[in-house]
Amino acid sequence: MEKNLPSLSTPPFLQTLELIANPIRFFDKYQNKYGDIFSARILGNQSPSVHFIGDPKALETIFNAPSGQFQLGKITHVFRPFTGDRSLIMLDGEEHRRQRKLLIPPLHGKRMHFYQDVICELTEETIKTLSKNQSFSCRKLMAEITLKVILRVVFGLKPGKRSNDLQKLIADLLDAITNPLYSSLFFFPSLQIDLGKYSPWGHFIRKQSAIDALIYAEIKERRQQDNSQQTDILSLLLSATDEDGNTMSDQELRDQLITLLFLGHETTASSLAWMFYWVYSSPQVREKLATEIQALGNTPQPQELIQLPYLDAICKETLRLYPIALISQPRVVQETITINHTSFLPDSILVPCIYLAHHREENFANSKTFQPDRFLDNQFTAYQYFPFGGGSRACIGAAFSLYEMKLIFGTIFSQLSLKLASQKPIKPIRRGITIVPSGGVKLGFAEKVHVFGVVRQKASCLRQEG
After folding, report:
1. CA dist., res. 135 & res. 374, Å (int)
2. Mean pLDDT value across the chain
3. Beta bridge partners of 294
4. How far is C-alpha 424 from the geometric centre of its chain's CA atoms?
5. Which residues, other chains included, contact 257 with Cβ-Cβ below 8 Å and sequence gap of 6+?
């Protein structure tokens, strides 16, 4: 029975605070003490235990369990105020399958090629505003770029008032809710009280309402247009139909768009900030990557960047050390399941823990060190390495996020000569649901210019000349 699992002995309230305050220290501490599976009472003394699982064999059982074995939307209530009730991460069963089937096509396969030039162009446009005489926060720059990408690629918003207003509102709201004290409100519903616009929850409600008004206005306007020639995700979702010929409602569209924004903006920006830190703090890694990109010639194209083996390995190792989310979506047991000789009863909560799995020394020697070559020399299973979750609840934006990381990083690395501007030790700290490098990673321009070629020409221009 699950009672045999090692469990935290401190009071439940202290366990919860320990996890919220410093999740990296929490997982490191108890993995060292108990191993890859342990239990905690982070939901209160009267609630079921939460079982954190990082063992690959156990994860294989969980990810391959039959439909109906678990309920998944129930435990994601902390996201509901932001994403809404119709978000993919809130749904279960047939409703989840229907929504997922509608959302997957725009984020995979050939559709990705429609986005590559936009991502590179928005990156180039943003880095042109940098002053060569001043250092800058890499995390803030990445957040600016990834938000522009989301608004253009997902929402299809061109530069203009609505885009500018939405960009400012979203940036302001995310800056607020990623504050540790502010974001703690999402874990404690009893504190979600509107005491006016200057109270934390009152501020959230008003910002959220303003964002919703702009999104619904965009949806209404787009429904009246011909979107057949558009390639943005909103246009594709507006025309998508399920097996019964039904389209998505305004609320479904709004909730899915907000989810893609929430889970694809700050998360990717944080991973990119880590990526810049690791590469620019390791001369060996930087030189090896420079050699790989230089081999592409003076004007590396997007489709060439995304195929580079070492750049791919750097992305994967970045996501291994501090994955976009530390856990995969929690599962609530519906029918008793036996995992590694332990039986978990109905209502037990199983949490596939990405961080625990990624720091198993058996699979990743010297797991706390940045070693991209491990992804060139080894093949890891989907139960050893799964930065975007696993099973039927794996993140639908995984391919797009990795694609975006390669293009943004590759574009900046090939065009700017940068260096770390601060030698202060970088520590992982919590910012909302993501783990970011402390200080935001300060970068500055290096004295020696190392630009591999002129600014990338637009693919459309190259096609015309060809």
Report:
1. 32
2. 88
3. none
4. 26
5. 154, 155, 215, 233, 234
Binding site for heme: which residues?
Answer: 395
Question: Is 382 within 8 Å of 59 (Cβ atoms)?
Answer: no
CA–CA distances in Å: residue 332 to residues 55, 335, 336, 354, 389: 18, 9, 11, 17, 16
Q: Residue 340: which region, alpha, beta or left (left: phi > 0; alpha: psi -120 to 50)?
A: left
Q: How many CB atoms lie within 10 A of CB 28?
A: 15
**What is the model's pLDDT at position 457?**
40
Is the Cβ–Cβ distance between 358 and 332 less than 8 Å? Answer: no
Residue 355 tokens read as: 């961080």
How is residue 76 written in tokens?
Answer: 């994601």
Q: Which residues contact 22 (CB under 8 A, 6 or more apart)?
A: 430
Instruction: Tell me what pLDDT residue 458 has.
Output: 41
What does pTM read for this prediction?
0.90
Query: Position 247: which residue type?
Result: T
Rounded (10°) CA dihedral 410, 415, 417, 418: -50
Which residues participate in the annotated binding site? 395
Query: Under DSSP, is residue 228 helix (H, G, I), strand (E, B) or coil?
Result: coil
Cα gap 359→322, rounded to integer Å: 10
- The region of weakest confidence among 186-190, 208-212, 242-246 is 186-190
Beta strands in 156-205 (DSSP E): none
CA–CA separation, 452 and 415 (whole Å): 6
What span, in angstroms and rounded, lies between the C-alpha atoms of 423 and 327?
Answer: 30
215 Cβ contact list (under 8 Å, min separation 6): 155, 166, 254, 257, 258
- Enumerate domains of the chain plus CATH numbers: 2-465 (1.10.630.10)
155 close to 222: Cβ distance less than 8 angstroms: no
SS3 content of the chain, % helix, strand, coil (to 5): 55, 10, 35
| Nearest residue to 442 (alpha-carbon basis) of 24, 162, 231, 141 | 141
The single-letter code of the amino acid at 438 is: S
One-letter identity of residue 223: R
For residue 239, CA distances in Å to 222, 223, 233, 406 come to: 11, 9, 10, 30
In 10 A of CB 326, how many CB atoms? Answer: 22
pLDDT of amino acid 86: 84
Type of residue at 345: L
Edge-to-edge strands, sheet with 37-40: 37-40, 50-53, 349-352, 331-333, 70-71
Q: How is residue 269 written in tokens?
A: 């920006």
How deeply is 281 buried, as exposed, middle or buried, from its count of CB atoms within 10 A (0-12, 13-18, 19+)?
middle
Of 404, 417, 405, 415, which Cα lies nearest the Cα of 456?
415
